[in-house]
Amino acid sequence: MSMLRTIKPKNARVKRALDKREAQIVENEKTAIFVRGQTSSDIVRNAMKDLYALKRPEAINFSRKNDIHPFEDASSLEFFASKNDASLMVTGLHSKKRPHDLVFTRMFDGRVLDMIELGVEELRSMSDFPTPKAALSARPMMVFHSDLFDTHPTYQQLKSHLLDFYNGHHLTEIPLLNTLEHVISITAGPISDATPLPLVHFRVYTVKLLASGSRVPRLQLTEMGPSIDFSVRRVQTADEDMMKAALKRPKLAKSDVEKGLGKKRKNIETDEMGDKVGRIHLAKQDLAKMQGRKMKGLKVKKSGKEAAEGAGADESAITED
């Protein structure tokens, strides 16, 4: 059983830094590092390139090769994660025993939380699909098609990894359609004697809204890539104490708990896709009182009646004097 580190702050600055690392009601975007080992293949490089494109801008790509072996020695992973303030890593490797290998790693408190190793069996990269692509930093909708993702421990861990990787949230209903740009579909086949761990099919589609003759538009899905078939290989599960600490949630006020909300900021809310939306309230602007450039051509000439009234007012003022 591993013991979690406890750091006692020496001053107020250190205490503020540690408070920022504590569990938050709304967590920030998780950064992912993409790093290659000493030996890799074209398939591994292309797969990492497309996964990196889907994760941007919360992603860092290492261009150099590194002598790194995640399951044998995790010190390099922990060093890279600490130096770049990242909690997710994808390591690309290739060997005769494990060809076209990708290792997904999650970090917590500067140490490895868990890992899962996937083999790239089939790949069609994003460049192979001459179709429109989703915008940068657009949040996808993720759909998991199989009971294994809710019942099998290995596939449950894989689902958790992918949701963390693309900052997914469990939704009970479909969000607003105009907020969707692309969908990530993950499918696993049934378990059989021939396939105790069936392949995982990773597909990405763009969303286009079409007229349907009603208020609800018709959705058209167009594959944009990448299209990857993964085989599940090695798995390293999380330590029980570390996972418990990683899942810790901050305490909420009783009123917020009853409303089902966290601590809210005025005019700032979170939509169905988990994006922050702000609202600005401005008073109605009176354009008649707006000061513009003083030009002769823009002066408003008085009508004959207004001019006569003005002249009469001036004469009455002189008479009174």
UniProtKB/TrEMBL annotation:
Q: Where is the composition biased (Basic residues)?
A: 291-302
Q: Which GO terms describe its molecular function?
A: rRNA binding
What is the protein's major site of localization?
nucleus
TM helices/strands, residue ranges: none
The record's section on InterPro entries has: Brix, Rpf2
Q: Where is the Brix domain?
A: 30-241
Biological process, per Gene Ontology: maturation of LSU-rRNA from tricistronic rRNA transcript (SSU-rRNA, 5.8S rRNA, LSU-rRNA); ribosomal large subunit assembly
Write out the ranges of the annotated region (Disordered): 291-321
**Pfam families (UniProt xref):** Brix
By sequence similarity, the record places it as follows: Belongs to the RPF2 family.
Protein's name in the database = Ribosome production factor 2 homolog
What is the protein's species of origin?
Answer: Kwoniella newhampshirensis
Q: What lineage does the source organism belong to?
A: Eukaryota, Fungi, Dikarya, Basidiomycota, Agaricomycotina
